[in-house]
Design brief:
- This protein has about 260 residues and is mainly α.
- About 80% of the residues lie in helices and about 0% in strands.
- Helix 4 crosses helix 7.
- It starts with 10 loop residues before the first helix and ends with a helix.
Length: about 260
């Protein structure tokens, strides 16, 4: 009876070789970061004490926390609105299928690739060093990251859509602006809105995270509670942040579902 091979020849030896390489990389990584497992296990005895202290809620912080949550949401929303207009304009200049100048398109893509490679926390530190602490610095730091993300996603959506429409409108002598406004924008708007909802969630997370470096909002309040070892306030703020993100996830998912399948 003839045996039928279900895997390619030499696949088993390749798998063994790959496992060995991954194991070697893992061992090297452990050595490089110098994991002190002995210290880790010695300090595990502190965990029950910390957890017991965090099993408390400080309701007195709730009103102030809600105000700061609204501040974080406002910061995320403002950066989103401004970022949408900037990114939408730049994306049509960067998309290869509609870009008026290929060199300009490549420059825009390259520039924002660099922007995306730097975490928003680093941008925040750079902005704070220039403008000082406060919501203005947070706004600019989040805006930089939001525009970088939206330019990439918008450009990808434009390049994947509307090839036939562009050719058809070019054949009629339509201008670049008319092709963008009347041809591509109606086709891409659904994808744009889906990316915008994802960006808003990211903006909220970043506005919370930037509280570590002095940007206002719920992140700053959480950092202050942690720095003063106020476990009850820390737990309360974390619970409120979790509730906020759950609600945001539900709302954004609902919006994306309605966009994809239509409102029921």
């Amino acid at each position: 009876m003839e045996h039928i091979r279900v895997t390619s020849k030499g696949s088993f030896s390749k798998s063994i070789f790959l496992v060995l390489i991954l194991g070697a990389v893992f061992i090297i990584a452990v050595k490089l970061i110098n994991l002190d497992m002995q210290s880790f296990f010695e300090r595990l005895e502190n965990v029950p004490n910390v957890v017991s202290q965090m099993m408390a809620i400080d309701f007195s912080i709730v009103p102030n926390a809600v105000v700061n949550i609204i501040t974080s949401l406002a910061l995320a929303f403002l950066t989103l609105v401004v970022g949408i207009f900037i990114a939408m304009f730049l994306s049509f200049l960067a998309a290869s299928n509609i870009a008026p100048n290929p060199y300009l398109a490549n420059c825009i893509k390259g520039f924002f690739a660099i922007i995306r490679s730097v975490p928003s926390l680093v941008w925040g530190l750079m902005v704070i060093a220039s403008l000082g602490f406060g919501n203005v610095s947070g706004f600019i730091a989040i805006l930089i990251s939001a525009v970088g993300y939206l330019v990439k996603t918008f450009t990808g959506s434009i390049e994947e859509t509307g090839g036939e429409v562009i050719e058809a409108m070019k054949s009629t002598g339509a201008s670049w602006f008319k092709i963008v406004y009347h041809g591509l924008l109606p086709l891409c708007i659904t994808a744009f809105v889906a990316w915008i909802t994802v960006c808003f969630e990211s903006n909220v997370s970043e506005s919370i995270g930037l509280g570590i470096i002095g940007v206002g909002g719920i992140g700053l309040l959480l950092t202050q509670a942690i720095n003063t070892y106020n476990y009850a306030q820390t737990t309360t703020i974390v619970i409120l942040i979790c509730l906020l993100m759950i609600v945001l996830e539900f709302v954004m998912t609902k919006i994306k579902t309605n966009i994809k399948y239509g409102s029921s």
